[in-house]
Amino acid sequence: MSNLVDRYIAVWNxxxxxxxxxxxxxxxxEDATYTDPLADVAGHAxxxxxIEGAQGMFPGFVFAPGEVYDAHHDIARFxxxxxxxxGEPVVVGFDVVELAGDGRxxxxxxxxxxxxxx
Length: 118
What we know:
The protein has 3 helices and 6 strands. The chain is of the alpha+beta class. It has a 6-stranded mixed β-sheet with strand order 2-1-6-5-4-3. A hairpin with a 2-residue loop joins strand 1 and strand 2. The longest helix has 15 residues. The model has no long low-confidence stretch (mean pLDDT 95).
């Protein structure tokens, strides 16, 4: 299931809108939901828009897997970092994902553990 985290991070780093849409469709179910402190969306278009918005808020930054990863049944949790490539993360998050029977993500519950000061 660690491959899931790699694919998840890759989607968040995809800057080409068409490639991102394809990657979202490949990783999330059609009716998937994504909820974090800044967003509450459903479906591929909503998820792709949230990713595009995050990239717009932090241009040039990249997502990377964090240190925590755990999974059981059809649920996984993991941390991720966002910051300059090879640099100190500016944002650290913790996501919990629920998988559908086909292995795609049906739900993401996201938490922000570290955010830039306003």
